[in-house]
Amino acid sequence: MPARLFPRLLLALFTSVLFACGGGGGGAESGSGTVGGGTTTPSVVDVSAPSAPASVRAEGKSATSVSLSWSAASDDQGVAGYQVYRNGALVSAVQGNLLNYIDTGLMPGSSYRYSIKAVDAAGNLSPASAEFLVSTSGQITLDAQAPSAPSSFIVSTAAQTTLSLSWSPATDDVGVVAYQITRDGTVIASLGGTVLSFTNTGLIAGTRYTYTLRAIDASGKASAPVALVVGTLAQGSSSSSSSSSSSSSSSSSSSSSSSSSSSSSSSSSLSSSSSSSSSSSSSSSSSSSSSSSSSSSSSSSGSSGGASSSSSSSSSSSSSSSSSSSSSSGGSTTFKDPGTAMYRKADNAPGYYVNSVTGNDTADGKSPATAWKTLTKLNSVDLNPGDVVHLARGSVWANEGIFLFSKKRAGTASQPIVFQAYGTGERPTISRPKNYFHKTQEFSGFYLGNGSAYITVLDVRIQDAPSGPAILMTSNTHHIVIAGVEVLRSGAGIGVSGENQTIVSNYVHDGVMALDTGDGSRDWGANGITVYGKNIEIAYNRLVNCVAPSKAFGEDGGAFEFFSYQPVEEGSLGYNYVSDNISIHHNFVDHAKGFMEAAGKVTNLHFAYNLYINSENTAMVLHVNNVVKDGYMQMRIENNTFYSADANPWGYGLLIQYLKSGATEAEKALSKIVLRNNIWATNSSIDKWTNPLGSNVTHENNLYYFYGGGKFHNDNWKLNASEKLADAKFANPAAKDFRLQAGSPAIDASAAGSVPLYNYDLGGGLTATGLRTDLGAYEWH
After folding, report:
1. Where along the chain do its domains lie?
2. Can you name the residues that pair with 621 across neighbouring β-strands?
3. What is the pLDDT of residues 9-27, one digit of tens each?
4. 3-state helix, strand, coil in the chain (%, to 5)
5. DSSP three-state, residue 667
6. Which of 103, 215, 274, 776 can bridge 223 by disulfide, Cβ–Cβ 3.0-4.6 Å?
7. At the fourth CATH level, which superfamily is domain 54-135?
8. Sheet (strand 132-135) strand order
9. How far apart are CA 566 and CA 532, in angstroms?
């Protein structure tokens, strides 16, 4: 990823956009073929939306955060998840068994409107709950104290497929707002701060489970976890209840009641142990015995079962989370992808159908039987809010693309326009896309231009788009979701700009050069995701082989590129555009020409829980002063794992501030770069260039692991007193398993009282499960 004096990608990109605004028309050739994935159409179509969630309320708040909770919605097929809206904009989605959410990064003394929607497995979205208005406190107070660990964590009732748990409340200086429960490392429930019991149903008889409980306060700080190992009863055993006398008299870790041991002679009878044994009385909450024996809508989650209910929730659903595919398709066995079910609409939702194999452009396009054939036909239609464009699996559209370029192709917050696959077979594919107005010009496969808003793109594959990006949104678009999409052999995968955009669960791989003339001032290509804008989330994406041979550089490319530059035709701000609130988290990068190259002005850019492996030693290139004068960067780089295993241990270093002249005082004053809780492993060096920002670049509680000649270079990067130089003890780097082994120096190595940016690590496990948060992208469990 060589340093360059101008973002060549943007220049080439928006030159193409200018051409696109011209007139023209005509058809494009369509083809047929096969590409990946398949879904069987259910025999019974679910068209019923869930009821609206009720009783949205604040369990607690601080100057910069609000802890929300709500009552469960109901649905005939079960609620799959909830969507949280702040001031009308979607800010998060949570699993269907979680009934609270902590919203962080807010402004002190400000008012916010929250509403919640429920979504079922078919993608039906409920009406919004009544809005709840809450104001953050006006003054930031330092909350340095995490809650105490909950006590008396016991099994109150056990049966063959059900376990009921209860505990005594935790304490906190600002108040406990939530309890989180994991089973075997996966979060299965998030309960309100007053709930002291939980019932897990749908389990397997005679099976052993490990539960973890922790308390969370309004600032997001989590208590030390309390663990409980317990087994369900064997087949043929009768249920067991822990009486108050048996639990209160127990001073050891065992909480098995006499009735449970006598009810079964099998070795798989109930046995439980708590990691926080206590001799104090564990008076079981009276709510535990009445905390719902199970939900009629519960469904098993995974091979081990596991629907759940609690005194604050009467329904549950299988989690929408799913592990990513194996390394053969660019994934890691330790990468947890939450999936795209929350964005999907019903298979028979009204809209249009397009099928390149059996379609006919003279039909009405309103059903699978009357589907259109070409994307050119689709582009001729104005889409309305709530429309769903159903793209047939098994279809391949060659020399076409989808072109959205007016407010007549915009959805609304409550009725987005959704593009999704239908039928069975390979995913719908756009191959060698061309400009809608100029049929011979290479172009993006999915173009979202001026006025595009509230549009969701799912399931498609875009291939062989060398001029890239394969998917492009301009800076005057907003509320675009790109999820579950595959891009391959493109000059750039996804070009992101605008506001309130969400880029999740995509697979971008095998990039190519977009321009390869041998002129280093013009050539570019093999970029994964490019970004600038405001309120943008880029998460749970897999970026693999974002590197290509280059005449000018030998190799070029990179996983992410950030150039905060707004083209003239979209606002004329150029490099005066200030990007804000961009989160790049939980991404998997394997073999790329760098992790991030950045230039321009940005506030609140953060990277967290990303994994960068098998790639060039130059992970971060931060242009200070040499691309644009008076640029500044405010960014946090936390809890990432960088592991470069470059055959040629060359590069600027794992972190570089690259410059040709000194930073101005204005740049120094406005810039602030924080690197903490990361693991940097390299056979090269950490930094080969002088830091131009002085004390405005801080690094603390990082772990450096040098192997094969790796080192600090010329004393430019000095070890902070809180940092470590040691073998990280990864589980199995050869198998792309960068979890920590027991005894790793990264375990519990963050600063005391520090709060991770996210509650989940890259593998989906809870963070801060020990005394302190671990370093890197994975928490040791």
Report:
1. 54-135, 151-310, 594-781
2. 597, 656
3. 444 444 444 434 443 333 3
4. 10, 40, 55
5. helix
6. 215
7. Immunoglobulins (2.60.40.10)
8. 89-95, 79-86, 111-120, 132-135
9. 9
